[in-house]
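# nightly structure sweep
# worker-07 picked up a monomer target from the shared queue
# config: single-sequence mode, recycle default, output format = structure tokens
# input follows
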Amino acid sequence: MDILIPLLAIVGGLLAASSLIAQKSQDAGQALKKLSPYQGIIGVILLVLGLYYFLFHSLPHLGAMMKYTAGLFGLIMQILMILVGFILSYNLLSDKLLSKNQTAQEKGAQAAKKLISIQIPLGLALAVCAFIVLIL
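# output follows
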């Protein structure tokens, strides 16, 4: 896996947990606040890359990935990328894609509501997992 994927995952995870980080460190909170206008774009990129790597790299080699620590953390990172990417990009996606279909908009809102309640833990988990993938 490219080095850019875990780095992007770390940024996305920290962005998802930015409210908690801002409480702990004002400087880090201000730095993450500068990224917030790009939250939707970062979320779409995380979502697309997470789905791509999960579907085309992990699923065909699932057995081998489960045997090794690096593969297991890579798999977990991809799943977290999909979830955090959906959360971060939900507003952008609902405006562009779901606005024409009422049923899809309602189902998307329900899924987003469930995930937003665990956004901070998911973001922290993604950042930590991506860091581990980076060093393994």
